[in-house]
């Protein structure tokens, strides 16, 4: 009788154990498609999930990956991680659907993901985040000619793609429609990272990843690199030389619209900080207040190439004559290509009025004090072909707190003389007013810079 009872109890335990295994198997079969669906879905709707769906996801993901419930769960979780790893979907960095309209508000770089938008800030993507459901950004490929051959994906830290390299620290990922060699274009592409850093306790990147139309770039121009070094320290530009496998970033910030929607207040902060750090980097100490008649420091900043003056001596003579008529005015002439980065910072720090042809060298207005003046020349016949490019340094003057004194086309001696006379007179009046005003009304360009 006891033997029969024992056999019935043993049979009951086996049946119960068998039922438990069946339940666990059914649960995992139902869970795997759900997780795979969640892995892929945000590529088309990259918005934060509701609190209820997020709680559900985190609860069951935790159970599935928890190995504390015994060998059966541990064995199945390994299989689940493998399936999640295999489910990572890589998409082209450059979406050809928007190739012809990339400048018309469309996003062709990581086109399936929507930006985070905040008041006064540039649009950005951050990984891992609530919007990415805690997943990391992974990039594969290092093509420099075809952005469609480079790709991106999102993956959970527990289930990175096979042969992936996890890159520790913070990575700045930039894509620009223009390039990183030109002073103006390069500056507009990195300025959003400065703004993001200011807002986030002055965080500094471990590395930079640079793209142009989704094509990998291995360097930025020396002027831009020195400017970033002055602000962040060593500039490490990633070349993905660790084999053909993808690289996944522990933390990453992506900017793909240049200054985009960044507000004027933030732009002023960014330029103040860059000016301050560049002067510190080059060991330039700003002069103290002036006594007596104000000094007006006029700089004729020249360039070579198609937009240079055909007769530099004639132009220099015009400005020298007009400067001599204004008490306290001094004139200096410099060739931008002959100046090192710190030389450019130095000459512009001690400039009140810069006069220069339209071109990248005008980006050096960044290093002048706020309320300084910019006189820009345009070559005859150039405006017809310039498009919106003719406004680039007008915009920059506004963003950095400078006064853009209109622009003059061609070379007419009378016109140049009248223009120089008018601007120098306006600057002298402004300086006289500041000299006789209270201390609180005087500009303090470095004291208003963000502290990083």
Automatic annotation (TrEMBL):
Residues in Glycosyltransferase 61 catalytic domain copies: 286-375
Compartments in which it is found: Golgi apparatus membrane
GO molecular function, one term: pentosyltransferase activity
Transmembrane segments: 21-46
Gene Ontology annotations for the cellular component aspect, listed alphabetically: Golgi membrane
Pfam families: Glyco_transf_61
Top-level division of the source organism's lineage: Eukaryota
Keyword rRNA-binding assigned: no
Main location: Golgi
Keyword annotations of the record: Glycoprotein, Glycosyltransferase, Membrane, Transferase, Transmembrane, Transmembrane helix
InterPro entries according to UniProt: Glyco_transf_61_cat, Glycosyltransferase_61
Topology of this chain in the membrane: Single-pass type II membrane protein
Protein name: Glycosyltransferase 61 catalytic domain-containing protein
Organism of this sequence: Dovyalis caffra
């Amino acid at each position: 009788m006891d033997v029969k009872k024992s056999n019935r109890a043993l049979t009951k335990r086996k049946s119960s154990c068998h039922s438990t295994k069946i339940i666990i198997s059914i649960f995992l079969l139902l869970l795997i498609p759900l997780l795979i669906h969640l892995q892929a879905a945000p590529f088309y709707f990259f918005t934060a999930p509701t609190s209820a769906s997020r709680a559900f996801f985190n609860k069951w993901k935790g159970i599935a990956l928890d190995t504390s419930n015994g060998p059966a769960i541990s064995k199945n979780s390994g299989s689940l991680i493998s399936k999640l790893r295999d489910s990572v979907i890589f998409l082209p960095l450059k979406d050809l659907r928007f190739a012809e309209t990339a400048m018309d508000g469309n996003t062709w770089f990581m086109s399936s993901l929507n930006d985070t938008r905040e008041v006064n800030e540039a649009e950005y993507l951050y990984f891992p985040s609530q919007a990415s459901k805690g997943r990391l950004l992974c990039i594969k490929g290092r093509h420099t000619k075809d952005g469609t051959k480079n790709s991106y994906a999102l993956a959970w830290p527990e289930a990175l793609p096979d042969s992936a390299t996890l890159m520790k620290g913070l990575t700045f990922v930039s894509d620009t429609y223009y390039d990183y060699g030109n002073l103006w274009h390069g500056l507009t592409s990195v300025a959003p990272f400065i703004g993001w850093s200011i807002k986030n306790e002055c965080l500094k990147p471990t590395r930079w990843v640079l793209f142009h139309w989704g094509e990998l770039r291995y360097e930025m121009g020396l002027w831009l690199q020195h400017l970033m070094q002055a602000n962040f320290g060593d500039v490490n530009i990633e070349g993905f030389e660790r084999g053909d496998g993808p690289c996944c970033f522990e933390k990453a910030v992506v900017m793909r619209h240049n200054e985009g929607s960044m507000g004027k207040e933030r732009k002023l902060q960014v330029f103040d900080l860059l000016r301050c750090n560049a002067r510190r980097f080059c060991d330039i100490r700003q002069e103290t207040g002036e006594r007596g008649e104000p000094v007006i420091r006029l700089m004729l900043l020249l360039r070579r190439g198609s937009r240079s003056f055909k007769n530099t001596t004639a132009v220099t003579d015009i400005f020298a004559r007009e400067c001599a008529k204004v008490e306290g005015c001094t004139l200096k002439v410099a060739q931008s290509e002959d100046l090192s980065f710190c030389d450019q910072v130095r000459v512009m720090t001690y400039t009140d009025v810069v006069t220069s042809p339209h071109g990248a060298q005008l980006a050096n207005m960044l290093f002048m004090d706020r309320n300084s003046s910019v006189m820009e020349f345009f070559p005859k016949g150039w405006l017809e072909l310039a498009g919106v490019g003719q406004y680039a340094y007008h915009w920059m003057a506004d963003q950095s707190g400078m006064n853009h004194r209109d622009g003059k086309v061609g070379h007419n001696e009378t016109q140049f003389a009248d223009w120089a006379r008018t601007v120098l007179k306006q600057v002298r009046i402004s300086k006289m007013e500041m000299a006789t005003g209270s201390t609180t009304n005087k500009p303090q360009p470095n004291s208003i810079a963000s502290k990083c």
